[in-house]
């Protein structure tokens, strides 16, 4: 009490770090192994500079865009982040209400701590549902049908985490989910039981990868649902091309916030190659390290149509519940408008690579 609200997303990170238990911080804020990718996700934005443009006044400025047949007021999307009730009792419903108030599209995690119908009902912009392909196709289908019935318009299939990364910070903290928090939407799915692992077998290859999905499963899902299909976790241009050939509607270039393969490339570094490989007609979204309006301008300049934020959601929840989430969305949108105006951009389409420079470049 008495402390002023944070004025930026980095300040929310600091405040949330102070407030969270070691266990919650390890889960929400940590990354895989040495957290190299986690750090690089931020650093790669800080290495890119912007070159301002002057005397660009005039009417008609807007952050609006069209994405997969929907009009969005701005390009900031709430990424799927699991177990939000562990950050604050407002949980996914609180995030969904904040998202609706600030006109932000929200992606619900399939590991949400609330039934997927609830945030969809309280938040008109909670319209994309993230899923993992399940070991049994009928289990994947059960999730897809529930999402369709609840009014979701797209399935975001996360493909970069067939198994967990090496989460040393969680191990050190002895992380476990608190009582009363669980992935309620994944309970009772018709998946086969996990068979015992024979002596000498590898849990990675003989358990996780043996049940992990392939491109055939994506093609199959494409044929099963009329929802838009978005693949999340693409970093290689060849995978991006394959995804488009498989009938996917959009891609999220992402390393899962540095939580899976440590030393994985930052999305921003891979984005230009991916944009070149798939061409201008495939919407590319990007996440990992977006904390400032200027980060959004940089991502859009390099080929992203929109961006997602992950950790900032749970940091804002931890500091101030649903109001915190509304606040960070307002902050990012204001910062984006300021950055656009100072770069001479009236619309998102005006943002282009010519605005960028290498901040590390030597003048000599
Ligand atoms: C995630 N992310 C994630 N992604 C996904 O597809 N399904 C999920 O359930 C989760 N859960 C999750 C939990 C937590 C605590 C974090 C931090 C992240 C990844 C998320 O959608 C996104 O890709 C990254 O968080 C983006 O990076 P930033 O914005 O956190 O730097």
TrEMBL record:
<dbReference type="InterPro" id="IPR037396">
    <property type="entry name" value="FMN_HAD"/>
</dbReference>
<dbReference type="InterPro" id="IPR000262">
    <property type="entry name" value="FMN-dep_DH"/>
</dbReference>
<keyword id="KW-0288">FMN</keyword>
<feature type="binding site">
    <location>
        <position position="167"/>
    </location>
    <ligand>
        <name>glyoxylate</name>
    </ligand>
</feature>
<feature type="binding site">
    <location>
        <position position="132"/>
    </location>
    <ligand>
        <name>glyoxylate</name>
    </ligand>
</feature>
<feature type="domain" description="FMN hydroxy acid dehydrogenase">
    <location>
        <begin position="1"/>
        <end position="361"/>
    </location>
</feature>
<feature type="binding site">
    <location>
        <position position="109"/>
    </location>
    <ligand>
        <name>FMN</name>
    </ligand>
</feature>
<dbReference type="InterPro" id="IPR013785">
    <property type="entry name" value="Aldolase_TIM"/>
</dbReference>
<dbReference type="GO" id="GO:0016614">
    <property type="term" value="F:oxidoreductase activity, acting on CH-OH group of donors"/>
</dbReference>
<keyword id="KW-0285">Flavoprotein</keyword>
<feature type="binding site">
    <location>
        <position position="130"/>
    </location>
    <ligand>
        <name>FMN</name>
    </ligand>
</feature>
<feature type="binding site">
    <location>
        <position position="27"/>
    </location>
    <ligand>
        <name>glyoxylate</name>
    </ligand>
</feature>
<feature type="binding site">
    <location>
        <position position="259"/>
    </location>
    <ligand>
        <name>glyoxylate</name>
    </ligand>
</feature>
<feature type="binding site">
    <location>
        <begin position="287"/>
        <end position="291"/>
    </location>
    <ligand>
        <name>FMN</name>
    </ligand>
</feature>
<feature type="binding site">
    <location>
        <position position="232"/>
    </location>
    <ligand>
        <name>FMN</name>
    </ligand>
</feature>
<feature type="binding site">
    <location>
        <begin position="80"/>
        <end position="82"/>
    </location>
    <ligand>
        <name>FMN</name>
    </ligand>
</feature>
<feature type="binding site">
    <location>
        <position position="158"/>
    </location>
    <ligand>
        <name>FMN</name>
    </ligand>
</feature>
<dbReference type="Pfam" id="PF01070">
    <property type="entry name" value="FMN_dh"/>
</dbReference>
<feature type="binding site">
    <location>
        <position position="254"/>
    </location>
    <ligand>
        <name>FMN</name>
    </ligand>
</feature>
<feature type="binding site">
    <location>
        <position position="256"/>
    </location>
    <ligand>
        <name>glyoxylate</name>
    </ligand>
</feature>
<feature type="binding site">
    <location>
        <begin position="310"/>
        <end position="311"/>
    </location>
    <ligand>
        <name>FMN</name>
    </ligand>
</feature>
<protein>
    <submittedName>
        <fullName>4-hydroxymandelate oxidase</fullName>
    </submittedName>
</protein>
<comment type="similarity">
    <text>Belongs to the FMN-dependent alpha-hydroxy acid dehydrogenase family.</text>
</comment>
<dbReference type="InterPro" id="IPR012133">
    <property type="entry name" value="Alpha-hydoxy_acid_DH_FMN"/>
</dbReference>
<keyword id="KW-0560">Oxidoreductase</keyword>
<feature type="active site" description="Proton acceptor">
    <location>
        <position position="256"/>
    </location>
</feature>
<dbReference type="GO" id="GO:0010181">
    <property type="term" value="F:FMN binding"/>
</dbReference>
């Amino acid at each position: 009490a008495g402390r002023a609200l944070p004025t930026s997303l980095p300040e929310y990170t600091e405040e949330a770090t102070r407030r969270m238990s070691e266990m919650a911080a390890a889960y929400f804020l940590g990354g895989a192994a040495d957290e190299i990718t986690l750090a690089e996700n931020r650093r790669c934005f800080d290495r890119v500079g912007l070159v301002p443009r002057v005397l660009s006044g005039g009417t008609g400025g807007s952050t609006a865009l069209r994405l997969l047949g929907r009009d969005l007021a701005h390009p900031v999307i709430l990424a799927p982040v699991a177990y939000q009730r562990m950050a604050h009792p407002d949980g996914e419903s609180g995030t969904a209400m904040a998202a609706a108030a600030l006109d932000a599209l929200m992606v619900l995690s399939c590991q949400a701590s609330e039934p997927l119908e609830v945030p969809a009902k309280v938040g008109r912009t909670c319209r994309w549902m993230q899923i993992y392909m399940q070991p049994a196709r009928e289990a994947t289908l059960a999730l897809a049908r529930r999402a369709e019935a609840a009014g979701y318009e797209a399935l975001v299939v996360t493909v970069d985490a067939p198994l967990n990364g090496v989460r040393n910070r969680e191990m050190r903290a002895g992380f476990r989910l608190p009582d009363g928090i669980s992935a309620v939407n994944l309970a009772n799915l018709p998946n086969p039981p996990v068979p015992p692992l024979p002596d000498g077998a590898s849990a990675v290859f003989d358990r996780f990868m043996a049940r992990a999905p392939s491109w055939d499963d994506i093609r199959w899902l494409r044929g099963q649902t009329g929802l838009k299909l978005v693949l999340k976790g693409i970093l290689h241009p060849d995978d991006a091309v394959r995804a488009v050939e498989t009938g996917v509607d959009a891609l999220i270039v992402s390393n899962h916030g540095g939580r899976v393969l440590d030393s994985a490339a930052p999305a921003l570094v891979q984005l230009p190659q991916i944009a070149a490989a798939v061409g201008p007609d495939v919407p590319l979204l990007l996440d990992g390290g977006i904390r400032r309006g200027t980060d959004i301008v940089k991502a859009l300049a390099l080929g992203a149509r929109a961006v997602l934020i992950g950790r900032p959601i749970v940091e804002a929840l931890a500091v101030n519940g649903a109001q915190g989430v509304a606040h960070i969305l307002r902050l990012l949108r204001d910062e984006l408008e300021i950055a656009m105006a100072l770069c001479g951009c009236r619309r998102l389409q005006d943002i282009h690579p010519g605005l960028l420079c290498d901040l590390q470049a030597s003048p000599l």
